[in-house]
Design a protein that fits this description.
By secondary structure, the chain is α/β, with parallel strands linked by helices. The chain is about 40% helix and about 15% strand. The protein has 15 helices and 12 strands. The strands form 3 sheets. It has a 7-stranded mixed sheet, sandwiched between helices. Helix 5 crosses helix 10.
């Protein structure tokens, strides 16, 4: 009988580990074999566009401040002066007057999501997520004793309101939305969100229960074609925004973000106290001190989105010419593309792409079979170099 080293749950999670990481590891193998310039890796959403110039300038200034107070413990919610400036700035964006007791600085959006779920969930409470979804949602919900209820989006990747309503029960505690969306690049319209809000209000009254709308928005400032992101705070009062600066400032490794409570939220004071406590007892304690002081100097900055838009258009036009069925992303930096034949599934097609040294992630990794995801936060040379491979792969399945 073999020894048991780790828990059954975690051992099971490892066996189902992220397809994104599997493709990333496969990419390293291919790069060693064929050379990095001959492998076209679209697997990981790791921004390659440089942070704004002011990031480096302000970082240098902060690093020269030798006051030891800057590196001591702080309130678990984050520096009060940072939260005050952040809340004033975010009041304009979300069109609700927020204050420093509506915001908790966190270790990225992942930290914000985890402390929010830990605060609101009792054992076996349900959280609705929309397929295709960011795969870590499943694990985050389970971290805090909840159960993920998966509802598919419609064929255009919009929120399927009827299916949401069918899946709400008296155990439903929250729904997580992600717009602009990873993996589809979809931006939910204000009309679609109002429809969702109407359902949540109706069912909340029916069960005499608060159902939270958690809006995960790390791509809010990466949008194209003059699309505007609606404020969930204007649409639904029991809402929480979780966000990070990983994408809009290209700082994923710095792990800095926030959870922002709608000031109209029922019981917002106790919710804030819960978030603060969970920030501490989850092991995050507080968001990184240096990054708090830095991002508050960059509130009007963002990366050059024109670079992502150019790449989007370049890849979109080529894939359309090859015959792929594809929706143009409205935000973020991903394509979620239908497998070009019913004779082959997403894993098999991703394997075909690997034969052309192209790395993509199968849709099953995001809860939607027969699609695959491409991340175009990569150098333009990688996109151009992949053109022939995408053409060969679709020809292989079309001639089967």
């Amino acid at each position: 009988m073999s020894k048991k080293y780790i828990s059954k749950k975690i051992n099971n999670y490892i066996s189902k580990s992220s397809w994104i990481r599997k493709m990333f590891e496969k990419g390293n193998e291919l790069k060693q074999k064929f050379g990095a310039n001959n492998v076209y890796d679209f697997s990981l959403g790791n921004p390659d566009v440089a942070p704004p110039k002011s990031f480096f300038e302000n970082l240098k200034k902060l690093s020269e401040d030798v006051n030891p107070v800057n590196h001591k413990y702080m309130p678990n919610a984050g520096y009060p002066v940072v939260r005050k400036k952040m809340s004033k700035h975010l009041s304009e964006i979300y069109k609700k007057k927020c204050n420093e007791n509506n915001i908790v600085m966190t270790t990225g959006a992942a930290g914000a999501l985890n402390i929010t779920l830990k605060t609101i969930l009792d054992k076996d409470d349900e959280v609705i997520i929309i397929s295709p979804y960011f795969v870590e949602y499943i694990f985050y919900i389970d971290n805090h004793g909840g159960k993920a209820v998966i509802v598919e989006s419609d064929e255009n990747f919009d929120i399927n309101i009827e299916e949401i309503e069918k899946n709400i029960t008296k155990k439903t505690k929250a729904i997580i939305i992600n717009s602009p969306n990873n993996p589809t690049g979809k931006v939910y319209t204000k009309e679609n969100l109002i429809q969702l809000s109407n359902v949540l209000k109706k069912v909340s009254e029916q069960y005499n229960n608060v159902i939270y709308l958690i809006s995960d928005e790390p791509y809010r400032n990466i949008v194209y074609d003059d699309i505007k992101i609606p404020s969930v705070f204007e649409i639904y009062k029991d809402s929480v925004v979780v966000n990070s600066y990983s994408k809009e400032l290209s700082l994923p490794g710095e792990r800095i973000g926030y959870a922002l409570i709608n000031p109209d939220c029922e019981g917002n004071e106790i919710l804030f106290n819960g978030l603060v406590l969970c920030n501490r007892i989850s092991g995050f304690v507080n968001a990184p001190a240096l990054m708090q002081r830095l991002v508050v100097t960059l509130l009007d900055e963002k990366v050059n989105v024109d670079i992502y838009e150019k790449r989007r258009n370049l890849l979109y036009n080529h894939l359309k010419e090859c015959g792929y069925e594809i929706q143009k992303p409205e935000g973020a930096f991903y394509f979620f593309i239908k497998v070009p034949s019913k004779k082959i599934d997403d894993i098999e097609f991703v394997n075909l792409l690997q034969e052309e040294n192209i790395l993509a992630v199968p849709g099953i990794g995001f809860g939607r079979k027969n699609y695959f995801r491409l991340s175009y936060c990569v150098n333009e040379n990688i996109i151009k170099g992949s053109f022939e491979g995408f053409k060969k792969a679709i020809l292989k399945v079309k001639t089967k």
